Predict the 3D structure of the following.
Amino acid sequence: MIFPWHLVRAAPLAHGHLVEDLKLGLDLAAAGKAPYFYPLVQVTSEFPVTAKGTDSQRHRWVQGHIEMILKAAPRLLLQSIARRNFDLLALTLDCLIPPLSLLGLLIIAMLVATSIAAFFGLSAACSLA
């Protein structure tokens, strides 16, 4: 991500959060300065080159993302609705999507649960009647 200097200088960066880029984007959106995608801008970055470094980075990101979902997203969701801040709402809804590995596990768990319910003849229509 790239930012105008005046936004970065005023942003709360000393928070020590595991997903600092996600938090910074949400903080800026809450302040009315949401980040936008510019397809013609090219940014380069260095990533870990070892398997251990990659695993460590992935673990940090998943842990930090889940922490943001549980701790910050509910407050930001209410704040975005109350202030009618649609940029913050969009970014908060995006934040609420769990990491791919967890999303896959949740989908499999729901498939198993609904298969068991169907096997025993349970359905949502029966419980509503």
The mean pLDDT is 87. DSSP finds six helices and no strands in the chain.
